[in-house]
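Note to self: keep these together.
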Amino acid sequence: MSLTSLLRPHFLKRLKAIERYANEAETIQRNVLARLLSKAAGTEWGRQYGYDGLRSYEAFAARVPISTYEELKGYIDRMRHGERDVLWPGRVKWYAKSSGTTNDKSKFIPVSADGLKDTHYAGGSDAVSLYLGRAPKSRIFDGRALILGGSHAPNYNLPGSLVGDLSAILIENINPLVNLVRTPTKRIALLSDFEEKRDRIAALASKQRVTNISGVPSWMMAVLNRVLDITGKSNLREVWPHLEVFFHGGVAFTPYREQYRRLIPADDMHYLETYNASEGFFGLQNDPTDVAMLLMIDYGVFFEFIPLEEVGRDNPTAVPLWGVEPGRNYAIVISTSCGLWRYQIGDTVRFTSTKPYKFVISGRTKCFINAFGEELIVDNAEKGLERACRETGAIVTEYTAAPVFMDNDGRCRHQWVIEFERRPDDVEAFGRILDRALQEINSDYEAKRYKGLTLQPLEIVVARRGLFNDWLKSRGKLGGQHKVPRLANNRDIIDQVLALNA
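Structure:
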């Protein structure tokens, strides 16, 4: 009996619980909140807000304020210095280093032992369960899982306390049995130099039987291309004939889809998106024919949502999961078993269904362009680029866009810096298609583009090969879970990128 046949029943048992999501979502989420409040009642935060007396979501929402990293930073820093029972019971030893805020270069998100088990590892296990439920012929465990990760470092030199990429924390604490079916070794996986790590992973994995891969599409592609360089093969099925699935997340897959089809020219290759952030594991693609992901509602995460138009207000309205409406954009607010309470993570989503709750990631609350009232979000940009690529045969590797507030002729426009894997024959035509698509997708953008009275046609700057990797490297963010910001309402990022585009 193969290892996959032996393990399959264990993973498939979980599917019955996930089926309850469709009809019992409110009950499930209320129970999650009750568990969180009960567990944290004795913490400093729990005592401050009277958790032991809260008996409902409505009471919780009325008493506990919505928070950002700035509000929790002081508590988290004390936890990093070893204080116990602050936001979550006991001592939290691990901290996921995430992108910074207005006031800080980095955020440090607490990752408790409870959060590792009931959220992050639960999500990884469910990804396999949902995949096996749709792949009866899978042999996923009869080979190696190539899993990319970042690196970590000591946290304030406290014994056993670490800070770094979430992926590194997950690898550091993973069940030793998992190491029997994963690659590379922990020593290689946690190397801090991405280029050295890429080369060593490629050299090792190219000699192994790899059946599945997991990671951020951009960084995984760097490793896979290196595998082809080392082996001299033309595609990955020649290296790994049993490769069957890519569990991907971190950035939208749309710009990379065609490149992966060229790397893995096989109709039976599967791609499943995961939504695993530093703050928690939130969603899984449960149907390969539907880009929307299933919201995972029985982990250690209680969800609330702020309508996008209220983000930034002093007292925004937050609704629980059972109060959301399909088709609207919401900013996510979470309370978790890692000690984040009514915390805005900065991502926005749009629900496509409520039985069960399925959603697409529509952008970031700070990743948009609204310099002229156009309210362009990442979801618009991805759809526009997808159409432009489809109609021109182009393949986009990376991009970023920002407003040009006024040029020498007094004109305003959007400027896009795009790195192409396959450059369109006519870049100006690509830009016209993108511009037209954005107008069809976004009525506010269309209004501002009307007769060019407010916005002139967008401008495309073709990036040299490797530009965005060079920019990430210059910022000390090459590899791991780092990604290029897609849209910005100011020119800070795009000007740095353009300065390197020589």
